[in-house]
Design a protein that fits this description.
The chain has 267 residues and is mainly alpha-helical. The protein has one domain (13-259). Helix content is 72%, strand content 3%. It has nine helices and two strands; from the N terminus they run ααααααββααα. The longest helix has 27 residues, at 198-224. It is globular.
């Protein structure tokens, strides 16, 4: 029988999630504040671990190859970030191509997700360098508040599922709550920085992009028949589970910045 919305069963993972979230928030905040090589090393490490998790979701009985690919990602990204020339973009293809060549199944899946993870990680580092601390704080705040609002609204209110075939736990109530929370973040930054009112709408669209990152990873896990990307983080699964929304948001902002001069997002 399905537990009532107010049942403690709906919140049995809250303590573990909260403790893990606090720890990751502290570490992430220190990296973002320090910036420079410290933030770069943190992003490179997280990106490498997510590539390992991706590999293990596809073929769990070959961990050594996954670890070697993770080490290669760290080397490639470090070289890209240190060099900065245009040809460095081609290095994004190294790990996706090698990983796909080593696999006997899901080659396109690995290629697409590995490429996306690397590009998003690279983008986060450049956001910090090019746009500054406040800009990255806005991006991360939108993702975090959207996730928190979505979690509590979804657990409390329940209701129709957003996309049941892909992500059975995600509800429309949680999804909309995430948009509203992101809009509130936009209002706060509009009031206390030089950002224009455009930032409110952009924040809400960014929330949707983050949710699509979460949906994409949920689809991957269902396809691979796994519950979590790994068991590294109590209450959260793996780093890929924790940062999937941030990856989606970062990719969206990278694409948007290439197409248009994003209005209002200037601090």
């Amino acid at each position: 029988m399905k537990a009532p919305l107010t049942s403690p069963q709906n919140w049995d993972d809250l303590k573990a999630r909260t403790a893990s979230s606090v720890g990751m928030t502290v570490v992430g905040a220190v990296g973002v504040i320090l910036g420079g090589v410290w933030f770069q090393m943190m992003v490179v490490f997280v990106t490498a671990v997510m590539i390992w998790e991706l590999w293990m979701m596809i073929i769990a009985d070959q961990p050594t190859r996954g670890m070697l690919l993770a080490a290669l990602v760290a080397s490639v990204m470090s070289g890209q970030l240190a060099d900065g020339t245009w040809w460095g973009v081609l290095l994004f293809l190294v790990v996706p191509l090698i990983g796909a060549a080593l696999l006997k199944k899901e080659q396109l899946t690995f290629f697409a997700f590995a490429l996306g993870i690397q590009v998003a990680g690279w983008g986060l580092v450049h956001f910090r360098v090019d746009f500054g601390f406040i800009w990255l704080l806005w991006l991360m705040s939108v993702v975090i508040i959207s996730d928190v609002c979505g979690y509590f609204a979804g657990k409390s209110l329940g209701g129709p599922k957003f996309w049941p075939k892909v992500s059975p736990k995600k509800t429309w109530s949680g999804t909309v709550a995430g948009w509203i929370g992101a809009g509130v973040v936009g209002v706060v930054f509009m009031l206390f920085t030089d950002a224009s009112p455009w930032i409110v709408g952009i924040s809400m669209v960014l929330s949707l992009a983050g949710q699509m990152g979460d949906i994409a990873e949920s689809a991957l896990k269902r396809r691979m028949g796994v519950k979590d990307s790994s068991t590294l983080i109590p209450g959260h699964g793996g780093l890929f589970d924790r940062f999937d929304a941030l990856l989606g948001a970062a990719l969206f902002m990278l694409m948007l910045a290439e197409v248009v001069q994003v209005p209002g997002v200037a601090f």
